[in-house]
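can u do me a favor
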């Protein structure tokens, strides 16, 4: 684990200048054609610290026998537009994972009802008790107002809730993508291995966006194992850290699922000394969140609010495939916990100098395990 100092706990230590033109607004023309920066974490100097390549060359850099673990959650078209009783516009973003709503539903006068959490936005002031209609089959009532637009709500609907969002909803693109969603995002803001029965994320596990069926087939041919976990990505992944001492930051909670077969594969890899490479920070949070429960590598369903930053140790994850993250975000802090803050900031500066594209639709980096 990298050593720490007091600067590692200061929010200002994670700031860096990023040219706006390097924030990717669209995916690459062809999936899998992203650039790849390879970081030899803990390099002894016998090889260059960084190497520049293409994501299609991923297999060439992975350590022998590596087990890749990816998040198979699927992005829900969770952003809806409706009308207030006064006729004014209202926007709603569902934050509660869809499977939890479907399990919690109850019948009331022919409608299904469930409590949920969401973001509501309107030009006029919102009030508890107010109800909004989104088409003829979905109604949202505010039960309680919280900070930063969050609300406790009750959904009431008829028919298939998933189908309502699929037909009426929009892909909730991150706030740094300065455009409306298009038909292109319906396919490109999903991983090729996202499962329909794992629909419910409001953001994509973006490191997985680089994988194609051909790259996955190549991984299998070359002997790299592949397992999947589910973490329903919440909008909190974009929430800024607002405390000057990052140790006081309260991480958002997310729902995770780790199957018996994946738990067995993880245990086997650890027993055999094979490295575990997480595909994305969401996979890290799922794996390390499970371990933080203190019961070892086990099948798990439940929530995690794990916050990883320098000084926090990784119990399962050895290496990481990840995109380039926002200054001052909890995500760059997680990566810094694996590499060390000064090293990752230096690597980010090299990425900026070499013109890498940042954030969700941007390029990728592979952080190799320590020797």
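np, heres the sequence
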């Amino acid at each position: 684990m990298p050593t720490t100092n007091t600067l590692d706990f200061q929010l200002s230590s994670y700031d860096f200048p990023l040219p706006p033109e390097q924030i990717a607004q669209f995916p690459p023309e062809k999936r899998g054609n992203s650039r790849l920066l390879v970081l030899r974490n803990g390099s002894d100097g016998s090889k260059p610290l960084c190497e520049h390549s293409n994501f299609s060359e991923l297999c060439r850099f992975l350590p022998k026998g590596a087990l890749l673990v990816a998040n198979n959650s699927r992005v829900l078209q969770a952003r809806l537009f409706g009308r207030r009783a006064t006729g004014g516009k209202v926007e709603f973003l569902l934050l509660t994972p869809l499977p939890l709503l479907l399990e919690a539903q109850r019948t009331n006068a022919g409608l299904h009802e469930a409590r949920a959490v969401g973001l509501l936005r309107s030009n006029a002031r919102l009030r508890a008790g107010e109800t909004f209609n989104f088409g003829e089959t979905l109604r949202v009532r505010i039960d309680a107002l919280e900070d930063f637009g969050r609300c406790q709500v009750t959904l009431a609907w008829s028919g298939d809730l998933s189908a309502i969002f699929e037909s009426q909803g929009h892909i909730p693109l991150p706030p740094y993508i300065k455009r409306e969603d298009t038909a292109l995002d319906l396919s490109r803001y999903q991983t090729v291995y996202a499962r329909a029965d794992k629909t419910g994320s409001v953001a994509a596990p973006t490191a997985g966006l680089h994988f194609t069926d051909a790259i996955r087939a190549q991984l299998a041919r070359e002997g790299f194992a592949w397992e999947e976990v589910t973490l329903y990505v919440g909008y909190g992944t974009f929430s800024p850290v607002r405390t000057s001492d990052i140790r006081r930051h309260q991480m958002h909670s997310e729902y995770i699922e780790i199957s018996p077969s994946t738990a067995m594969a993880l245990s086997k890899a650890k027993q055999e000394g094979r490295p575990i490479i997480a595909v994305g920070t969401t996979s890290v949070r799922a794996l390390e969140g499970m371990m933080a429960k203190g019961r070892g590598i086990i099948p798990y369903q439940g929530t995690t609010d794990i916050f990883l930053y320098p000084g926090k140790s990784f119990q399962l994850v050895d290496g990481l495939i990840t995109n380039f993250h926002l200054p001052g975000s909890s995500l760059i802090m997680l990566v810094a916990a694996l590499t060390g803050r000064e090293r990752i900031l230096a690597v980010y500066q090299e990425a900026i100098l070499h013109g890498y594209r940042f954030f969700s639709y941007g390029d990728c980096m592979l952080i190799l395990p320590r020797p």
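The chain has two domains: 6-74+186-368, 78-169. hope that helps!!
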